[in-house]
Amino acid sequence: MFAPRLYFRARPTTTAVLRRCLGSTADAQTLDARLKADLKAAMKAKDKVRLPVIKGILSDILYAEKNPAGGASFSRGSDADVAAIFQRAIRRRNDSIESFVGGGREDLAETERAKLAILQDYLPTQLTVEQIEERANQVIQQLGVTGSKAMGAVMRDIGISPTEAPKAKIAEVVKRLLTSSAAARIGRHAQRTGSLGGLSADGQSVACFGFKNATNNQRAAGYRFKSTVTPAAKDASIPLNSKTQYTTEASADGKTLVTAFPNGLRITSEANPGHFAAVGVYVDAGSRYEDGSTSGYAHLMDRLAFRNSERFTSAEAMAAIEKLGGSIMSSSSRECIMYQAAVFPQDVPTAVKLLADTTLRPKFLPEDVGELQATVPWELQDVESKADMFLPEKLHEAAFRSGTLGNPLLCPIGQLHRATVDSLAEYHERWYRPERIVVAAIGVDHQQLINLCIDNGFADLAPSHSAPAADQSDSNGSWFRKILATGGANSRIAVPSCKSVYTGGTWFDSKPDVDFTQVYLGFKSAGIDDEHGLYVYAVLQMLLGGGGS
Predict the structure, then answer these.
(1) pLDDT tens across 161-208, in order?
(2) Cβ proximity of 297 and 285 under 8 Å
(3) Distance between CA atoms of 58 and 77, rounded to whole angstroms?
(4) How far apart are CA 105 and CA 274, in angstroms?
(5) CA neighbours within 13 Å on the CB side: how many for 336?
(6) Strand ranges across the sheet with 266-270
(7) Cα separation of 155 and 143, whole Å?
(8) In degrees rounded to 5, what are phi and psi of residue 147?
(9) Cβ-Cβ contacts under 8 Å for 314 (sequence gap 6 or more)
(10) How many other β-carbons are positioned within 10 Å of the β-carbon of residue 110?
(11) SS in 3 state form for 93-107?
């Protein structure tokens, strides 16, 4: 039996609100229960649009349950709590739609609209701003209050369920109305007295108009960002005394340019003009190179991306990312740690600045490491609950039992609490060397990219060896290998025996209580040096119906 949890004061209107939002029957289905039922239906129907949306919401619910914001309690049986998760997901979809429309990608915007419709189907019809204003004005008049100090009383008595409108949206409307009413009261006083602390009544009118303009400007910008504060990056001293001698080579078709610096750094780009530009920093590190003391560190470096650095605090970095309005992310794999951004062309300098600081000059603070130690266990639990994420891990463990590609991609629980500020800094110092770094971009002028890398300190990063960069004129090997080539035998980095040895094997886990049987099959394939073999396997993969090869 479902007993609705009330989040309202005992007023006559709450019963009607509750019936409208949750239904009045005793056996009403919770949002969480409905999601689980719909997940099974989507899996059976192989609904490729609905399934990832439902999985994403359930993952967000699990995270909120394990890590309640601000220490507040969260119950997945409470529709009010779950509705807040939906509201955030809806807001993210709306942000994505606006970004895609602004970038001329109507095809991607249409996909996001389809996912948005799925999310909205779980909630009642959302209140408009005008409807929220009407209710808020009624409460303000009943209480006879003005000014932002009365927000708590108005929010408590407004009687709007979290399923009807996001709490942040309600708070914004209430604050605006209370501020406007206070300004109007002061204006009336000014008209009676003829002054307002040195401001005329006309001056106050302009101030009130300014409040309205601020709101309209936010709406014109799509209300995209959580923060409207422009981050002021610290003027940290970055020594820029690089030797600008570098060599540039073009591919056979002239589309791809690769520049090598004396310290081993490589910069590659393709000038493919469009509405968006993509830029990334790729570090030749990952779980295949890890040993017992650093197992899982690539995963932790990924999770520490875009936090505190030499020129940005975590808050400033987040504000800058939100202001960009594009997509910026990091990820770690078995053979690479990637930091990538897709932004509007005019925002490329800011994106490179963020990428440079998080890769070259991160600050490992105790509070950030402590947060990782608290949240990563949830991530591991979430991965174990998803066969499509968990089984590839087991597949690699069985295929490469001697380590390297069989090393765990995610940080093991036992290793997590041994990670310290010093050990992470040592890992960064060891692997984030210029000869192991590639900066790549599409839709960016190559010379502009070189200048941005020089300005942000990439060219001045000290190598771990004194040998020159890899010779790109070598006729042996693929063009792709030339881009990714590292210092090779000249490198002084002590790497565990990183030659992968395919052993093969099997792994089974009997779970009679699950609805579906998951089967993964893997076979030894070509390596990156075998360019011909890679294409053959890629075609074979497509002929077999795709997959995770």
Answers:
(1) 766 777 777 877 887 777 654 444 434 444 444 433 333 333 333 233
(2) no
(3) 12
(4) 10
(5) 14
(6) 247-250, 256-260, 266-270, 437-442, 277-283, 337-343, 327-332
(7) 12
(8) 85, 155
(9) 306, 307, 308, 368
(10) 12
(11) HHHHHHHHHHCCCHH
